[in-house]
Structures are given as C-alpha cells and as structure tokens.
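I'd like us to work through together how a protein chain folds, taking it slowly. To get us started, please write out a protein record for me. Go ahead whenever you are ready, and we will take it from there:
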Amino acid sequence: MCRYASAGRLYTLAQTIEHTFDQTFLLYVASAVDHGMAAAEAIQKFMDKYDLSEEDLKMETAYKRWQRYQKKEKERELIPLW
C-alpha cells in the first residue's frame, strides 16, 4: 500500500464500484421490463452484454436482487410525500 491507496480508500472505491454496477444492472433490467421484456431475459441479456458468467453473478442471485429492488420501489410509492 502507498499513501494514496490506503486500505480504507481501496474499500471505499470497491464499494463505490459495486454500487455503480448494481445501479446499472437494476436500471437496465427495469428499462427492459418497462418495454415489455421478461425480467429473466433482461438479466440474461445484461449478463451477455457485460460478459458475465454464472461464476461472476448467479442468475438466481441476480433475479432475487431484482425482486428486492421491485419491492423497495413499491414501498416507496406508498410513502406519502406531503
């Protein structure tokens, strides 16, 4: 490690990259679903586009992540903003 790449900074960078990837994934799938594509097909296309294998991201894990995202979005719609 050097003074520019401390363990804390590398952890923060890794978390930022992971968050960005997750948001890109969820927005891609949401957009595809909004345009009539099935979620499983959209997830598979995302994995193909970014050359992700089953070892990198399991299909079941990705689908569960998508379901949790949908649930959170529905809950946000229920919260009154007045």
The chain has a mean pLDDT of 89. Residues 7-34 form the longest helix (28 residues). Helices lie at 7-34, 39-49, 59-78.
